[in-house]
Every structure is written in C-alpha cells, then in structure tokens.
Amino acid sequence: MTDKTALTPATHTTPPATFSHGVKKGNLLQVAGQVGFLPAAEGRAPTPAGPTLREQTLQTLANVKAVLEEGGAGWDDAMMIRVYLTDVAHFAELNEIYDAYFAEQGLKQAPAARTTVYVGLPPGLLIEIDALAVLS
To answer: What mean pLDDT do residues 115-134 have?
Structure first.
C-alpha cells in the first residue's frame, strides 16, 4: 500500500484545523479547498488578495497551482476542479476570469472537468476552489 503524503507549499500557512492543503497517494493528488489568501508572511494573519472576485479568483488559482506543483503536478494533470462561489451573480464574471486564466496557462491536454456550486464562506471571501489530479 502506498503511503499518503501531506502537501503544504511554503506560500501557505498551516491549516487552521486537522487537514492538509493537499494529499498525494500513489498517482492521485487531491488539493483541498483553497481561498484567495495572499502568500503567508511571518506575523501576518491570512489576508485575502482583495475585495474583488477577480483578485480573489486569480490568487485562489495560484494557491491551487502551488499545491499541485508541490505534489509534482500541474494543470494538465487536473481531472476535476470544483469552484465554490458565495454569489450566483458572480457566475458569468467567474467564467470570464477562469477562461482567460487557463488560456494563459498553455494547456497541452483537454481542460479539467468543472463543477460550480454556491456556498457560504467566512466574511470577505468570495470563492474557494479544490482540484483532483492524476499524475502519469
């Protein structure tokens, strides 16, 4: 049986509860829900990238990517991406930001499947994203 490895990039703070930012087992890598917190800084509480959906979405995607890379993966390895929004009115804007971001990533394979749902998040947070990747 393959061991499970917890993943925490240097840019991330220690999770606030008993979970990992990412977990790798065999060729599977699950990225936990990431939000748009700026990279960790000594003595600074986790801080959202900004008040706008664009700022938080781009930082959230960067945070997901950091966990993927920590586990030896990238966006081309992502099979499923789940997006959690706090406001249904943000759906069209999210799609524009998401499409532009992935157009810039230069994917060599088909994009990951995606689900978007609406949830409650702590005050000030607008989006959370998790991902499942399969490494070849």
So the answer is: 97
Q: Give this prediction's pTM.
A: 0.95
Q: Residue 133's beta-bridge partner residues?
A: 29, 78
Q: Are 47 and 39 in contact (CB under 8 A)?
A: no
Q: Tell me, letter by letter, the H, E, C secondary structure of the chain.
A: CCCEEEECCCCCCCCCCCCCCEEEECCEEEEEEECCECCCCCCCCCCECCCCHHHHHHHHHHHHHHHHHHCCCCHHHEEEEEEEECCHHHHHHHHHHHHHHHHHCCCCCCCCEEEEEECCCCCCCCEEEEEEEECC
**Distance of alpha carbon 58 from its chain centroid, rounded?**
10
Q: How far apart are CA 123 and CA 56, in angstroms?
A: 13
Rounded to whole angstroms, how far apart are CA atoms 4 and 26? 8
**For range 82-110, the mean pLDDT:** 96
What separation, in Å, do the N-terminal and C-terminal C-alpha atoms of the chain show? 18
- Rounded CA-CA distance 135/84 in Å is 24
Query: Which residue's entry shows tokens 């990279």?
Result: 39
